[in-house]
Design goal:
The complex is a heterodimer of chains A (about 300) and B (about 400).
Chain A lengths: L13 H19 L3 E5 L14 E9 L2 H10 L2 E8 L5 H14 L5 E5 L10 H13 L2 E8 L1 H4 L12 H8 L7 E5 L29 E6 L17 H46 L6 H4 L4
Parallel strand pairs in A: 1-2, 1-4, 2-3, 4-5
Antiparallel strand pairs in A: 5-7, 6-7
Helix pairs in contact in A: 3-4
Chain B lengths: L1 E6 L6 H17 L2 E6 L17 E4 H5 L2 E7 L5 H4 L3 E9 L12 H8 L6 E4 L2 H10 L5 E3 L23 E6 L9 H9 L5 E6 L13 E3 L4 H9 L3 E4 L8 H8 L3 E4 L15 E3 L5 H13 L1 H16 L4 H17 L8 H36 L2 H9 L3 H7 L3 H8 L1
Parallel strand pairs in B: 1-2, 1-4, 2-3, 4-5, 5-6, 6-7, 8-9, 8-11, 9-10, 11-12, 12-13
Helix pairs in contact in B: 1-11, 6-9, 7-8, 8-10
Classes of the chains: A alpha/beta (about 300), B alpha/beta (about 400).
């Protein structure tokens, strides 16, 4: 059964979490150089750990889910925080986001990050229009990402549009000529923990062009400052095992509960039929008919 | 946004269908006001495309009286009418490099090529066209919007069935009279096969089929009809020489059919040799027949290709997604500064006149050739040949001199 990790939480698999953090790490030079930063589709904000340092400007956290925005407010470290619940397909909401960003830094440079969000939108045309307008007219650098679902033909039920090489090319044709494209590739590895060795090792990895898991696109002023360093973390197998087993165990529990509920429902229906039969024999009106709307 | 798409007609064709689908998406999901402007007098009733009811369909005369935010030509001949409309921006939606439809020497070929050099924005459905246009006109905005697939009509099965021992079920689709569809060659390839096979030919022109290869000839078929046919077929055989986005094999992919294709433009967007289809060489009818035989014999390979074809189809965008890209592309064109059109309007008017003149010349040339052929045949008749020779005799010339004005009038 697929595990759709659409919301990054503390239990998210390390590989997915580090993927997400890397995107923020890539955008970090642009974010830190901005007086205001807007994170569209911020989710729980946990990925922003990739920024590496507290943000010195005003962070505007935007998500369609109010609970996620509230969570992000506690996770993101910034000089000032604005939390916005907004639907990024709605032009009025997009206008609110735009106004908030322009107000937060009336004269300074701005940055917008929009990671793993576009594919969730039923229409992304208004969002693209907003981002292009901000980049062209309001000194705003934009970093966005989309997944390469097409490679595996992944049919993610949470994704409203399919992304891959072709769709990225379509998107690129809308962007200014000087946009930057970075292909995010997956790494796999292992390490030996020797007794007495330093707690931290710096691993070097050869990164070559390959099939991307995601594609990052940056445009606007300073887009070429996108950082490309890989991010490697040790997998916390203990946590991962806990999460996966908990999930399997919860699933079994829910399946058993559903079965039990079905049996109970059938038993109640049987009992009700028996009561009705008795009532009919005694010439009494059927109990519960009027009150519950039960027509049986 | 008020948008006018200029169409030559509303007859059944892939190109017209694509424009209608985009127009429908723009109206239904992106709040556009779209008018389909027909640039020519219509002799036939329009094809009943789905969604036409939501669109305004007007003639050029009506459209001239209105103002649009954006006017978009959709076929090279419609660019001649493009600047007759009042619009803030002009664009052309290029579905193929249309000059390639015509052989060298035909007036339409150079005129179609000319329209690819207009100083307006380009929107195209194929990456190879976008790359070509960008190389030819680096300064011109060129937006890439792939065609969607109607996922309700070409509704992919969850899994494909394994076909072990039936004859290989082949579909060939296209008009045998259109040279670049190369249908006769495809039929010959099937004739050269050695393994059991069943060929269905889909054509709107069944009377023009000069081959015993097809087991069944059907058509014209609606999209629903094509989807049903692909669903019970193993392979789509296409040996086209010119294609734009190259839709038919992709539609087949959606229904679990693989393809055998030439490396025609557009195939590179989704066909991968040995992964979801087989790419055969140009003019290699024997080799193509062997590729088909291989699929008929090697059911493991056939199933692998069909499985991956279906997976490829899953990742292809729906019309909803394609419509969103089109909306974004048109928005980008509208927001960009208006290009300097300079003398483009006059140039197009001149080009149109020149095209008509060249067409007339070409027509006269054909007529003269026909007359010359007839004269040559007549001259081969002995009596006429003798009379023809005798006309040079001085005595006969002297006798005929008074009749010359009358003869001239008769022959003119």
């Amino acid at each position: 059964m697929p595990d759709w990790q659409e919301r990054i939480t503390r239990e998210t698999a390390p590989a997915i979490r580090v993927e997400h953090e890397l995107r923020y790490a890539a955008a970090a030079p642009l974010v830190h150089a901005s007086a205001a930063w807007c994170d569209l589709g911020c989710g729980t904000g946990l990925g922003t750990a990739g920024l590496g340092a507290p943000y010195a400007g005003t962070a505007i956290l935007v998500d369609v889910d109010e609970g996620a925005v509230e969570h992000a407010r506690t996770a993101v470290e910034a000089n000032a925080l604005v939390a916005l619940t907004a639907d990024l397909t709605n032009p009025a909401d997009l206008e609110r986001v735009r106004a908030e960003l322009l107000d937060a830094a009336p004269n300074g440079r701005r940055c917008v990050t929009c990671f793993e969000t576009i594919e969730h939108l039923s229409t992304f045309a208004p969002l693209i229009e907003l981002l292009l307008g901000l980049a062209a007219e309001h000194d705003t650098s934009v970093v966005a990402s989309v997944p390469n679902d097409a490679f595996w033909s992944i049919e993610n039920p949470h994704h409203r549009t399919t992304w891959g090489e072709g769709a990225v090319e379509e998107l690129r044709s809308l962007l200014p000529d000087d946009h930057v494209v970075a292909r995010q590739v997956a790494l796999q590895g292992s390490a030996l923990a020797l007794p007495g060795a330093p707690a931290e090792e710096v691993a070097s990895v050869r990164v070559e062009a390959g099939v991307p898991t995601h594609v990052l696109l940056a445009f606007g002023p300073g887009a070429d400052a996108l950082a490309a360093a890989p991010r490697i973390v040790q997998a916390d197998l203990s946590e991962q095992r806990r999460w996966e087993r908990q999930r399997e165990s919860d699933l079994q529990l829910l399946e058993a509960t559903t079965e039990r509920l079905k049996e109970e429902t059938a038993r109640v229906a049987e009992f009700r039929a028996y009561i009705h039969e008795l009532e009919d024999r005694l010439g009494l009106p059927r109990a519960g008919d009027a009150a519950t709307g039960d027509a049986s | 946004m008020r948008v006018a798409f200029l169409l030559h007609d509303l007859q059944l064709s892939g190109g017209v269908g694509v424009v209608v689908q985009h127009a429908r998406e723009l109206v239904e999901r992106h709040d556009f006001d779209v008018t389909l402007v027909l640039t020519h007098e219509q002799e036939q009733e329009p094809w009943a495309f789905d969604g036409l009811a939501h669109l305004h369909v007007e003639g050029l005369a009506q459209a001239r009286a209105q103002r649009f935010d954006l006017a978009i030509a959709t076929w090279w001949e419609t660019t001649f009418s493009l600047f007759e409309l009042h619009a803030d921006r002009y664009a052309t939606f290029i579905q193929s490099l249309e000059d390639r439809f015509y052989p060298p020497g035909v007036p339409e070929r150079s005129s179609a090529a000319l329209t690819q050099g207009l100083p307006i924005a380009f929107v195209t459905e194929a990456r190879w066209i976008a790359d070509t246009l960008r190389a030819l006109h680096p300064q011109a905005p060129c937006l890439f919007v792939r065609n969607g697939i109607d996922k309700q009509v070409f509704a992919s099965p969850e899994r494909i069935d394994v076909r072990l021992d039936e004859p290989l079920r082949i579909v060939v689709e296209g008009n045998p009279d259109v040279w670049f569809k190369n249908v006769p060659s495809a039929l010959r390839c099937v004739e050269h096969m050695r393994e059991p096979r069943h060929l269905t030919l889909v054509t709107g022109n069944p009377g023009r089929v000069d081959s015993d290869a097809p087991d069944k000839i059907v058509g014209p078929l609606s999209h629903q009809g094509m989807a049903q046919l692909y669903a019970c077929s193993d392979v789509v055989l296409k040996l086209s020489r010119v294609e734009g986005m190259y839709g038919p094999p992709l539609e087949g992919f959606h229904m679990g059919a693989t393809c055998v294709t030439t490396p025609v433009t557009g195939h590179e967007e989704y066909v991968e040799h040995g992964w979801n289809g087989l790419v055969v060489d140009w003019d290699d009818e024997r080799g193509t027949a062997r590729a088909l035989d291989l699929l008929a014999r090697d059911r493991r390979l056939l199933h692998f290709l069909r499985t991956n074809a279906l997976e490829t189809a899953r990742s292809w965008p729906s019309w909803e997604q394609a419509g969103t890209f089109m909306a974004a592309a048109l928005g980008t064109i509208q927001r960009a500064p208006a290009p300097a059109l300079g003398g483009t309007r006059l140039l197009m008017a001149d080009a149109r006149v020149q095209l008509e003149y060249d067409r007339r010349l070409a027509h006269e040339q054909i007529e003269l050739r026909r007359a010359a052929r007839f004269a040559r045949v007549l001259k081969r008749v002995p009596l006429i040949e003798r009379a023809w020779r005798a006309r040079r005799h001085p005595l006969l010339r002297a006798l005929l001199r008074p009749l010359r004005p009358l003869l001239r009038r008769l022959l003119s």
